[in-house]
């Protein structure tokens, strides 16, 4: 969905599915500082991610905002070479991350990270080129459109189709961190995608108050071929 359409859809209430919501958030809202980390940080995800990542992996990080997730991941994987392309619709966040990256003194980390403005539902990348995709909160942002009916959110469908298009068959993994159980049916309901899905529930302490916990759903989806035919063509 194009920027103009989103603007019209959200004329009265800015929803997190709109570009304008994120421009505000990173220009003058809570995201205007050096880093705003949604849901969980790298250390809380580390064990899940390090199990998946291999030497030579090319990884896409969608809706990166000004999260340090990718930087921390590259720092941690010092014995292997990975490349992470971080994308976001918010130009301000991407510009700031590019500025930050230029100042990183560790050349290996700096050279492994790319930040660019792209809409994750409609990217310019070629098919089947990523070993892995990371999302923390972007699918959730798109779920918050005005199309409330469960399973019928076109933006979420577009996101998952795009992730499927970009991932390598069989070996491609998509880690999607969400606070929304409503996301799960989208992995099963679209005949244009075929995922092998696992959900891990990660309970963390809330920053909102002592003793309050929150459940983060880590959707771990492996990309499978659409049909047996495709499987044969691939081999
Ligand atoms: C909930 S925030 C999560 C930010 C970051 N991943 C984190 O965990 O801190 C959602 C992010 O998705 C971005 N976003 C929203 N719609 C997008 C789209 N269509 N394509 C790419 N990024 C998008 C927003 O600008 C924002 O940075």
Task: Write a compact overview of the structure shown.
The chain is of the alpha/beta class and 235 residues long. The chain is 35% helix and 21% strand. Bound molecules: S-adenosylmethionine (SAM).
CATH class: Alpha Beta
Taken together, the total number of domains comes to: 1
| N to C succession of SSEs | HHHEHEHHEEHHEHEEH
Cofactors and ligands present? S-adenosylmethionine
What are the defining features of this structure?
single chain; 235 residues; alpha/beta; Rossmann fold; seven-stranded mixed β-sheet; 10 helices; 7 strands; 35% helix; 21% strand; globular; disordered N terminus; binds S-adenosylmethionine
Provide structural commentary:
- Keywords: Methyltransferase, Multifunctional enzyme, Transferase.
- Residues 53-171 form the Methyltransferase domain.
- This is Methyltransferase domain-containing protein.
- It is a single chain.
- By secondary structure, the protein is α/β, with parallel strands linked by helices.
- It has a single domain (3-234), classed as Rossmann fold.
- Helix content is 35%, strand content 21%.
- The chain has ten helices and seven strands.
- The chain has helices at residues 3-9, 19-27, 42-50, 69-76, 91-102, 107-112, 138-143, 154-166, 184-188, 228-234, and strands at 58-62, 83-88, 113-117, 132-136, 173-178, 195-205, 213-223.
- It has a seven-stranded mixed sheet with strand order 3-2-1-4-5-7-6.
- Helix 4 (69-76) links the parallel strand 1 and strand 2 (83-88).
- Helix 3 (42-50) packs across helix 4 (69-76).
- It is globular.
- The termini are far apart.
- Mean pLDDT is 90; it is low at 1-10.
- The site of S-adenosylmethionine has 21 residues, from strand 2 and helix 7.
């Amino acid at each position: 969905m194009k920027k103009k359409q989103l603007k019209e859809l959200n004329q009265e209430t800015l929803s997190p599915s709109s570009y304008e919501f994120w421009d505000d958030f990173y220009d003058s809202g809570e995201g205007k500082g050096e880093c705003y980390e949604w849901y969980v940080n790298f250390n809380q995800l580390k064990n899940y991610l390090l199990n998946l990542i291999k030497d030579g992996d090319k990884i896409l990080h969608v809706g990166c905002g000004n999260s340090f997730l990718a930087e921390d991941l590259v720092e941690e994987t010092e014995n292997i070479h990975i490349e992470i392309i971080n994308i976001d619709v918010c130009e301000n966040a991407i510009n700031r991350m590019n500025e930050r990256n230029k100042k990183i003194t560790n050349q290996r980390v700096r050279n492994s990270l790319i930040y660019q403005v792209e809409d994750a539902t409609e990217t310019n990348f070629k098919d089947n080129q990523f070993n892995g995709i990371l999302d923390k909160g972007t699918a959730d942002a798109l779920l918050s459109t005005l199309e409330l009916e469960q399973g019928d959110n076109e933006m979420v469908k577009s996101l998952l189709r795009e992730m499927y298009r970009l991932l390598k068959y069989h070996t491609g993994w998509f880690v999607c961190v969400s606070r929304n159980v409503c996301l799960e049916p989208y992995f099963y309901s679209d005949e244009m995608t075929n995922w092998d899905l696992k959900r891990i529930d990660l309970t963390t302490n809330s920053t909102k108050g002592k003793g309050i916990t929150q459940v983060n759903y880590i959707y771990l989806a492996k990309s499978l071929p659409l049909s047996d035919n495709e499987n044969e063509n691939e081999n």
